[in-house]
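Today's session is about reading a structure prediction critically. Students often jump straight to the picture, but the first step is always the sequence itself: look for stretches that repeat, for charged clusters, for runs of hydrophobic residues. Only then move on to the predicted structure, which in these notes is written as discrete structure tokens rather than atom positions. Here is the chain we will use throughout the hour.
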Amino acid sequence: MIKLDFQINKYYLAYVLFNKSSQPEDFFDPPIKQKIQSFRKKLWKEYKNNPSYYFIHLVSYKHIKWAIENIYLKDNPSSSEVQIKKLPKDIQKIFQVIFQSPVFKIILKETNQYKNSVKDQWSQNQNFVLNYLEKIIGEKLPNISVPVNIIHPRLKQGRVNSSRSIIWGHPEDWSNYSIVYLTHELLHIVFNYYKIPQNDLSHAIIELISDNELRIRLNQKGKYFKEGRKNIGHPHLRKIEKKILPHWSKYLKNKQKNICSLYKKMNKKYCRF
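Below is the predicted structure for this chain, in token form.
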């Protein structure tokens, strides 16, 4: 049985917040964005001469390069050792300043509310989703617990990180959006468990399973590749998906399913993938 463990990592939330919010897009409503920008300027003024600051807020490549060189490439090796030993304390200090700021407390509160909402959505739909996945994959699902690190939905991230946990935060663009894309990210982990390579072909199959077929089954309406006016899936995978779509349609009708066999068949037939 697969279990999703929903949690919030304050350090990662702060890291993403102060890097993402430095981009030109308006991720947050003007009042909150203004507070974030104002607090970021305050941090900059306070810590711009501290190399540790650039491991939290990557202003530019030249700043992280400067930070690394000032920590690891000091002329005097003993000075580098001092900097390295000091680094964790400095980073912790800056993070604590962020955690105590009024604007971060607002973001954390909203993130916690969002986490509870996503967790409730998953609880209501997990039996349906996991039963569907087991039938589609044609194998018993692995008995694993997957951490889901929730960030604020306005920060718009959905991916599996190197430790095989999920990072998730996105507005609900349409009904059951979070369920569909949590399933998408979960499938990357499950495919790895079944030793299906992570490439464009397997990613296209994942999109057919979750972004399209699951979305339509959950919402009891819809069509492939479109949800209202929104295009579904990664544009660079669309050509592959449309090419294998007839095989996928036949696969859905088969009583004996095996996703590993489908992958191997498609990989052999369209070896350019």
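Discussion point for the tutorial: Residues 9-109 form one domain.
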